[in-house]
Amino acid sequence: MAEFYANVSLAEAVLTSTVNGVHIEVDSKALGVILGVPAIGFDLYVREDKSLLGKAKLLESAQHLSQQPGLKSPQAVKKGDMQPLHQLLFWFIIKNIILRA
Asked: Cβ neighbours of residue 86 under 8 Å, at least 6 residues apart?
């Protein structure tokens, strides 16, 4: 595991690493299969520019993730307001996939 993290990099939505001389490449679809969770929309989630989704889809996502169907406009969703599965996915991505300096 330490070797995986030491060699990990993320570029163009593909996570790559090398372990014991074996090159590993994982995209969002493969990661979803490995974790047994849906990966639809992951590529949009990690984009800085969310305008591609449109205001209606952003509102729907915010309502779903925050468990607040009464929201009237898209907004950021705090981790504590997410469903447990979404919190788990969020923490896994932040701690293990998206590298922070």
From this structure: 65
* pLDDT higher than threshold 90 for residue 78: no
Q: What is the pTM of this model?
A: 0.39
CB 3, CB 24: distance < 8 Å: no
Contact 55, 44 (CB under 8 A): no
Distances (CA, A) of 26 to 19, 35, 37, 42, 46: 13, 12, 14, 13, 15
Burial 9-20 (b: 16+ CB within 10 A, else e): eeeeeebebeee
Single-letter code of the amino acid located at 1: M
Residue 12: which pLDDT band, with cuts at 50, 70 and 90? Answer: confident
H helical segments located in the chain: 2-7, 28-35, 42-45, 55-66, 84-92
Three-state secondary-structure class, residue 81: helix
Q: What are 25's strand-pairing partners?
A: 16
